[in-house]
Amino acid sequence: MEALQAILDDVAQVDPRAKGVKPQDLMDLRYLDEMEKTGFFDKLRL
Fold first, then answer.
1. Are 23 and 5 spatial neighbours (Cβ–Cβ below 8 Å)?
2. Over its length of 46 residues, how does the chain's per-residue pLDDT go in tens digits?
3. How many whole angstroms separate alpha carbon 18 and alpha carbon 21?
4. So what's the pLDDT on residue 45?
5. What integer pLDDT is reported at residue 34 of this predicted model?
6. Which pLDDT value is given to residue 4?
7. Tell me, what's the pLDDT at 7?
8. Greatest Cα pair distance in the chain
9. Residue 10 and residue 14: Cα distance in Å, rounded?
10. What's the burial of 21, exposed, middle or buried (CB within 10 Å: 0-12/13-18/19+)?
11. Are 21 and 10 in contact, with CB atoms under 8 Å apart?
12. For residue 11, what are the contacts with CB-CB under 8 A and spacing of at least 6?
């Protein structure tokens, strides 16, 4: 999110519309959330 915000800040210097965009609005975390919920990452650590 921080890196995406830095990019938006740079773009905002050229296009003021970028100031109204939130990084979380550009990312879809559904799959990551589902993998965490089902324990997928815990299984990788074994």
1. yes
2. 999 999 999 999 999 999 999 999 999 999 999 999 999 999 998 6
3. 5
4. 82
5. 97
6. 96
7. 97
8. 48
9. 8
10. middle
11. no
12. 18
Rounded to two decimals, the pTM is 0.66
Residues 26, 4: contact at Cβ < 8 Å?
yes
| DSSP state letters, 1-46 | -HHHHHHHHHHHTT-GGGGG--HHHH---HHHHHHHHTTHHHHHT-
3-class DSSP assignment, residue 44: helix
Tokens describing residue 32: 């990551």
- How far CA 38 is from CA of 6, 33, 43, 45, 46, in Å, comes to 32, 9, 10, 14, 15
